[in-house]
Amino acid sequence: MRALVVEDDPGIAGGLSDSLRRAGYAVDVCATLDQAWGALVVEPFDVMLLDLGLPDGDGLDLLARVRRNASRAGALPRNDMPVLIMTARDGVSDRIGGLDSGADDYIVKPFDPNELLARLRAMLRRAGGRSSPVIQHGDLVIDPAAHTVERAGESVVLGAKEFALLLALFQAMPQVLSKSRLESALYGFGESLESNAIEVHVHHLRRKLGESLIKTVRGVGYFIPRESVAATAPAARGPSL
Fold it and tell me: What are the residue boundaries of the Response regulatory domain, all occurrences included (predicted)?
């Protein structure tokens, strides 16, 4: 999952980015509305964390611009992208105004990073049409909060990028995600990326979770079909990356 943090306080932005990266997110930070819009129109973000008091205006203006956008999937940014407002404005009217302007959730500074992460998980569950905090697919059980994966009751250890890739595919299931879309979901602007990184991660996931789970559409990308047989026994699991 790729998160855009729109926050002009370097201390808050840095601490929040560290928490998100530890939780498996790819993170990009923008300090102004102009920078944030520029990022949104060139990259597909899964979620935006939005401060309101920014140097070049009010974050609600950016939120309104996103929600007015006509596209849900083609041109960017998506107008259905989950947005969490994080601000010092703690009045009831402020919270009502933020939510009625199109925010999916609203948290008041200062906040506990663990609460923010829990709110993000809940937002992404709703965006993916899920109510359960865990993802179950055949004999595969994924817990996004605990960052654990079980296959037929046995724990499977995944590397951070492997886990993020698996979540991205399940979030989109059964939609096919291109290699470039998966790269965008897993890597921020400043992160180094090998040309075959996605292929390597997919190879390891298949080795650990079974060849039948992730399908390839040659020349297009990867997907998890709803009817995939998740119970096929995997080969040796091996260590995580």
Answer: 2-124
